[in-house]
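Revision sheet: structure tokens.
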Amino acid sequence: MDPQALVRDHTIYSCVMGSRAFGLATDASDTDRRGVFLAPTPLFWRFEKPPTHVEGPAEEQFSWELERFCELALRANPNILECLHSPVVEYVDDTGRELLALREAFLSRRAHETFTRYALGQRKKLEADVRQHGAPRWKHAMHLLRLLMSARDLLRTGRLTIDVGDQREALLEVKRGEVPWPRFETWMARLGTEADESADRSPLPAEPDQARIEDFLVRTRRTSALQSDPDDERVQGVVRGRSLGQR
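Predicted:
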């Protein structure tokens, strides 16, 4: 199976993530692309199933198959939820637009646990850097603060906004190493406390609307099955890529 053919031919949504989506880009920033592809339903009828994710074909490009993307979003995976709210959309078709229309259905108070757990993991790495090298990787420190801000505001408002807005310069000071570690620790702790306090009175529902998402996925799979011809050149192109890779 040629995974990259799935991305080239069956992408339903693609966006730019990273610093360019967060409002933190500089002249040296990479362009990180993320996307969602819909594997044709006939491919699931074979013993070898389509991949759940694909790297490439472009540099700094990563895509998920729709079902895997929805699974991760229902678990409030921070990276996935942020993809759904990128302000820089490069491509979207009708199925992708329906996915974006459902993005509020993925949001729930589960985000408090997942965002803060991810932030805790990053904090431990930063503290290890300080112990071993005397300073953290400041770029990672900046993104930790950004994530905590995003979590706090999501829990407060029920809306996920990933552009940092007027916090850009303050965060870039962190990236440049211009903020002393003790001041960073205080800032980080305050944001964590604010997120915890916001969780108790958040307007978000306790759980995501899984039934609504599942209905979308089932309808999309059914439509793909009805519209797909197993002998279609695009489907066969994916299969031929798999066969060549196995020789």
